[in-house]
């Protein structure tokens, strides 16, 4: 099994840095706090307009034309519309399945957020807060969402699989990323209660989720679990015969390599990825391994140290004009693309993050170099080698 895909990030799960206009007139940094700062009708109009325009049928035809075969679609825990004040988006996912099946693509449904958040990242829905796993009723709610998704789509031709939960954070990543400094909590009380998940909890949640999903989904569709940023910690996991069609997902960004001390040179990036390839090959003995999120972004091509991919939103002053030539950028991106694609192919494939970005990297001060998160732009600029991918 080899998969070549792209994430439809920021469509059904919002990330402010990818679509700043949606947050205009508020100080909200995440999806949880946005409706708390806007009148109900304004919030609903913005969200509905965004969802109807951000991803359309045409995106699916272009993705197919690039030779990709699968899309990973992040969805929120309120997808079914049962958690006010948030608006459900099951209709949009239905549309995506119809488009995918019409144009010969498949879908990995990725449950990207949890009530109270599983990681405290902005993409977990509520910045600086990580209390989901402390609340048994919310853990059960998340399982019920997975089961309902499996019931609704388990038999669909366009389903590739269901990912249990995106990027649950454990103690090492919580501390290494200084999550609550990078993403300050708005609600001080919720922030104070926050702490990383335990590996024991996450393992049990994955086992429970597998059972709930498999009830409604045939074995030729995949159940995907994230490595919780510990790629090699799963060798003894799900070894029993009952576990079929299970895929291990790892997320690997060069900005995280930088955060942990990788030098900002092409040689160091490539060396880092080659070591990572060995780890993927090692884990492939136990599970098919996909890289569910990665991109070409790196500080060298930006022209300044981004402090592990921090943005103007995190208080890091970005560049207002290009300092790296287009030719040099292309060289850097081509080199890291080649190394990364080889590593992912040593496993079972990849999903680029992300398909598109609504950040204006030309006219908005501080965003120079962030265009490489947008796969469409990367292809257009010759940074991403479609023919090799």
UniProtKB/TrEMBL annotation:
UniProt keyword Cell membrane, yes or no: yes
Boundaries of every Glycoside hydrolase family domain copy: 52-298
Stored SUPFAM superfamilies: (Trans)glycosidases (SSF51445)
One Pfam family of this chain: Cellulase
Subcellular location: Cell membrane
Primary localization: membrane
Keywords: Cell membrane, Cell wall biogenesis/degradation, Glycoprotein, Glycosidase, Hydrolase, Membrane, Signal-anchor, Transmembrane, Transmembrane helix
Annotated membrane topology: Single-pass type II membrane protein
Similarity section: Belongs to the glycosyl hydrolase 5 (cellulase A) family.
Function, in words: Glucosidase involved in the degradation of cellulosic biomass. Active on lichenan.
Name of the protein: Exo-1,3-beta-glucanase D
């Amino acid at each position: 099994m080899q998969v070549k895909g792209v994430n439809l990030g920021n469509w059904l799960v919002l990330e402010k840095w990818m679509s700043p206009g949606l947050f205009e007139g508020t100080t909200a940094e995440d999806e949880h706090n946005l409706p708390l700062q806007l009148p109900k009708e304004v919030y609903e109009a913005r969200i509905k307009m965004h969802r109807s325009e951000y991803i359309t049928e045409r995106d699916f035809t272009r993705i197919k034309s690039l030779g990709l075969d699968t899309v990973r679609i992040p969805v929120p825990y309120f997808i079914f519309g049962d958690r006010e004040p948030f608006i459900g988006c099951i209709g949009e996912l239905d549309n995506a399945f119809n488009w995918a099946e019409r144009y010969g693509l498949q879908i990995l449904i990725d449950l990207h957020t949890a009530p109270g958040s599983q990681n405290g990242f902005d993409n977990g829905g509520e910045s600086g807060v990580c209390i989901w796993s402390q609340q048994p009723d919310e853990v059960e709610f998340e399982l019920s969402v997975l089961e309902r998704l499996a019931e609704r789509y388990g038999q669909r031709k366009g389903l590739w699989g269901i990912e249990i939960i995106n990027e649950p954070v454990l103690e090492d990543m919580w501390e290494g990323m200084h999550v609550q400094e990078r993403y300050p909590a708005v609600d001080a009380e919720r922030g104070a209660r926050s702490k990383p998940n335990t590996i024991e909890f996450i393992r049990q949640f994955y086992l429970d989720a597998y059972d709930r999903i498999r009830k409604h989904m045939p074995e030729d569709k995949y159940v995907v679990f994230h490595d919780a940023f510990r790629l090699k910690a799963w060798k003894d996991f799900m070894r029993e015969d009952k576990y079929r069609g299970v895929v291990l997902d790892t997320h690997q960004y060069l900005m995280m390599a930088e955060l942990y001390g990788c030098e900002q040179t092409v040689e160091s990036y490539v060396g880092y990825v080659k070591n990572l390839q060995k780890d993927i090959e090692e884990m492939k003995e136990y599970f098919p391994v996909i890289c569910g999120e990665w991109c070409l972004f790196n500080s060298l091509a930006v022209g300044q140290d981004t402090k592990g991919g921090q943005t103007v939103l995190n208080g890091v002053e970005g560049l207002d004009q290009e300092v790296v030539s287009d030719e040099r950028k292309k060289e850097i991106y081509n080199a890291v693309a080649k190394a990364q694609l080889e590593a992912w192919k040593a496993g079972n494939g990849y999903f680029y993050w992300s398909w598109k970005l609504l950040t204006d990297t030309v006219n908005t001060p501080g965003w120079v170099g962030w265009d490489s998160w947008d796969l469409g732009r990367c292809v257009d600029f010759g940074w991403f080698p479609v023919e090799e991918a």
